[in-house]
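Bug #77: duplicate submission created two jobs. Keeping one. Sequence:
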Amino acid sequence: MIIVFKPNAPQESKLKVRAKLENQGFQIHESNGLNITLYGIVGDTSAFDMRTLISDDCIEKIMRVQEPFKRANRMFHPEDSIVNVAGVPFGGRKLQVIAGPCSVESAEQVTSIAQEVKMAGANLLRGGAFKPRTSPYSFQGLKEVGLDYLKAARAETGLPIVTEIMSADKIERFVEDVDLIQVGARNMQNFELLKELGKIRTPILLKRGLSATIEEWIMSAEYIMAGGNENVILCERGIRTFETYTRNTLDLSAIPAVKKLSHLPVVVDPSHAAGLWWMVEPLAKAAVAVGADGLIIEVHNDPEHALCDGAQSLKPDRFSRLMSELKGIAQIVGREL
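Kept job's structure:
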């Protein structure tokens, strides 16, 4: 349920409404715009008699929310949310680009790539330390050592780091060492992990599941936000369809759909969507054109010998050219890069 107060409604009147609702056991999510204040009511309002509030002349209108997600709902928060990642804002006018190798392979490798992508204009460094792989025989990542290498690259370049968490028992280490914690597609509906991530305040990059609907994706964000962590960034990375030519099918329609339904920032991962390096550039451009708040792109200095996903990685020189080309597209749609 949403309560919209009249412009310039007295604070005392709003607090009286809040107290009345909290006494009924409801949680209140307050959103303050330039001219109006909204109360998002979380809880079972089906049996609540709205007539007890309508009589209050400080209220403009009361609306019931049909979608099952509340805190992530744009009705609760009409203005776009800005999620701050170590001083880098996601969701504003400026587009943010996360770049780096799929897997951390050595200290020298990840630091060298970090320097290259920073020079090209990337704002954050990505790199997998713990790798979820389809085959148990594939490279699983350097784990804690990989985290140490990422920290060293951050110290060298100043780029905040993004890496994927696999299980709740690693949360304490991630909170200490990682600027943006990624929840991968396979863990999007690992609800126990999402609940634990809701207890921290480190920003979360939540990737869409392999076959998840848009509502299921936003509901996973709701799990994190319901625990108190509202620093969530959504990531579209392609979904599984009948098509086998590409690794996944990038759902660009998801960006405007999510923007209509939710206030959360959305970034796009064209690398995992296509699985083919030569598709990354046009898909990245399309993502910016359709309204994405950022990109996450895999960059490797030697893709032919990468331990993971070399086929979808750009070399540093191609990434640099792409960044230059994206600036023009961003300007056309009223954004900055």
